[in-house]
Amino acid sequence: xxxxxxxxxxxxxxxxxxxxxxxxxxxxxxxxxxxxxxxxxxxxxxxxxxxxxxxxxxxxxxxxxxxxxxxxxxxxxxxxxxxxxxxxxxxxxxxxxxxxxxxxxxxxxxxxxxxxxxxxxxxxxxxxxxxxxxxxxxxxxxxxxxxxxxxxxxxxxx
Length: 158
Prior knowledge:
Tscrpt_elong_fac_GreA/B_N; RNA polymerase binding; Tscrpt_elong_fac_GreA/B_N_sf
């Protein structure tokens, strides 16, 4: 997309902040178990200690990555041209006539059934489109299409 950090929608920021909170809690639990033993134990104890240290390093790396993303990524805003962008709420009509409003985000979130990631087939097909356009995209079951009915800000405003 761009050379710099990708914009984050409010939903993406919320998901990252939730993950960061969970990682910090997990890191605190791991840290509490490091260096428990006063005496060096057997090889199994040493291996367990090494595994906890490795877990702490992995958690620290992910925490640093999320903090950097949150700090450096600009807020996503729907395009002022009315075109679909990261952060847009898009109402579409599918081939079968059903209509749905989805929002375009950078990060998958299992708690958000209306999220379409920008790198998914539908998300890629919608980026840059405007209301009234018919959009075709590939699915595991073959080609599908939608009509873009409206493009608005997150939360549904057009």
